[in-house]
Amino acid sequence: PFILNAQNLVPNYSFEDTIPRVSPFLYLPSDWTAPTGEGFEYYTSYNNFTQQHLQFSTPSNLAGYQQPKSGEAYIGINLDDFFSKPRRLRREYVQVKLNRKLIFDSTYCMQLFISLGDSANFASRGQLGVYFSTNSVGSNNVSNLPYTPQIIVSPNTFINDKVNWVEFNMQYKAMGGEEYITLGNFYDTAIIDTQFVVGGGKQYWHLNTYYYIDDVWLSHCDSLPDSLIGIAESHLKNQVSVYPNPFQNEFVIETNSKKELSFRLFDSFGRASTPLSMTKTEIGYRVMVGDIPKGIYLLHIDDGKEQVSFKIIKN
Q: pLDDT per residue over 170-181, tens digit each?
């Protein structure tokens, strides 16, 4: 079943509605704001007017390469950096006013999707918080906001997936009257639980923890079919898996689709790769990639009716 948008208390939950802010247009998401002087990054395919704007486009942008979880857009925030000397508590936050106030003693379900930016060299756990408040909060500086978030996303597990959107489901029991949510790192310390992740960028500003965020959902738990399953996934995508990922010289496309499939491989700049060497197997296909350079690629699969894409990485 589909979830009606009206059930979601978060306006513009997948960052699709846009507002042109500068000429010749740099789009920003409507309803969402940056509560501190540090700001945040908005990535949308509409940011394509100049080479500089392409840094804030999708799927390729300044932080890496990622298809939106849904629609055309997502945001990115820096939770911590390791390049400032001495260390500075640089924090990026996003804030939104809910469609209506929360009701006292009601339990709400929250869902969001996160992917670690390809350029980031560190992953974190217990770092991303969600703060519910009756009024908007903010500061003119770039350090942490002095509030205690009621929800901590992934308190025990490092969010280190650069390929997939990782789904997180949480619950919140309202105090009553909350009308704003703010997402970010609220810790007032530079000692953060992080994990080094191979394959990050080589620039000094890539020594950070940086996440893409998409599809932020908040609503009454008892109004959600299939426990916050989200927008229905592609039927074809549910029939296909690609592994290992990352890979070296070959990977496997496993599928139970009865349709004839076609495949195309593109690099992170959208350029078609050399023709794939494929061997049919009992479970799908064995793909040899030859001597293509190391990096991020997008595998397009088409069954004549649906198209799906998988981000894969060659080490």
A: 888 889 999 999
